[in-house]
Design goal:
The protein is α/β, with parallel strands linked by helices and 89 residues long. The protein is 16% helix and 29% strand. It is built from 2 helices and 6 strands. The protein has helices spanning 18-27, 68-71; strands at 15-16, 31-36, 39-44, 55-59, 62-66, 76-77. A hairpin with a 2-residue loop joins strand 4 (55-59) and strand 5. It is globular, with a radius of gyration of 12 Å.
């Protein structure tokens, strides 16, 4: 469905900003976009495990799992989705 190198505005894709891509590659782990009271949030799968219904977006050797509930509203995964307390995680 998506690629980690697509540009914003392409149909049926979720764009991953370069800073989020770098964040994931530096931490060498999978992440998941899920629902929080403040909107979509990007967390390591060790904190929020993926579900079988999640969309999967490759980022290098890693994967961003996106909740099916968030996927319909997302066109971009950006740094603002990373909680400040995980910034140095």
């Amino acid at each position: 469905m998506q690629s980690d190198v697509e540009e914003p505005g392409q149909s049926q894709s979720i764009y991953i900003t370069e800073d989020v891509r770098s964040y994931i590659l530096q931490r060498k782990r999978d992440f998941r976009v899920s629902t929080s009271c403040g909107g979509p949030i990007l967390l390591p799968v060790s904190v929020k495990p993926p579900k079988t219904t999640d969309l999967q977006i490759p980022v290098g050797d890693y994967t961003i799992y996106v909740s099916k509930y968030q996927a319909r509203y997302l066109d971009c995964i950006h740094r603002g989705m990373i909680p400040f307390f995980y910034d140095d995680y």
